[in-house]
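INFO batch 0412 | record 1 of 1 | parsing
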Amino acid sequence: MRHIARVFQVTFFAAITTASSLAESPELGGPPADYFLGKYEVIGRKPGSNATYSGTLELTAVPDDAFVVIRRVGDHKVEGTAALERASSPADHPVVLRVQFKYGGHEYEGTFLWRSDFDNYPRLTGLIFERGKKKSVGLEAWFPVHPR
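INFO prediction complete | emitting tokens
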């Protein structure tokens, strides 16, 4: 039984080490930009409200490790931009995805942390807020739509 437990520990450690080594970008120390490309299912809560929503999102590449973000929620399609950068806090300055878009005459920003799911696809969670109004934040989670 100890042997099986040890094999599991080594396998688990190897999987985590491999996943983290695949997600290294020389510029930021995080994942390469193309790791995030693709389609996502989105669930969220509007800033300043308890209203929830769901939709889809697609990240496509543009030069300089930046992205075009196409969000579809209900009948609304909104295009924005995103880029990877280091957060100013906490102390370890994690690599985050910063998103900007306009909707309904308002400018919004979002800051997303990322982690790999069990299939090594990115999952992102973050805060969305209207520019200049960080006290009234919304929440979003992005789940990758796996290729079939």
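INFO post-check: The longest strand covers residues 52-62.
INFO record closed
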